[in-house]
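Title: Prediction job returns without error message
Component: structure pipeline
Severity: low
Priority: P3
Assignee: unassigned

Description:
Job completed but the reporter wants confirmation the result is attached to the right record. Sequence as submitted:
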Amino acid sequence: MNQTDMWVVDSFLFLYVVMVARSREIRWYQATLISMFGFLLAGTPFAYPVWFMVQEIGGIFFS
């Protein structure tokens, strides 16, 4: 899988999360957390900004 394919998959997953949040099946913050940690676990290009945010938030609470 090349980089372009990864961006297409990430875009689809992001759109899916937005649509699930808009359908109000789950709350917006639950959809956000699920998507962030899903991108992090999958190691997609969006994993790097998510990992940075996790480190910053962890540094605030645990330092």
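Comment from assignee: result matches the submitted record. The two ends are 39 Å apart (CA to CA).
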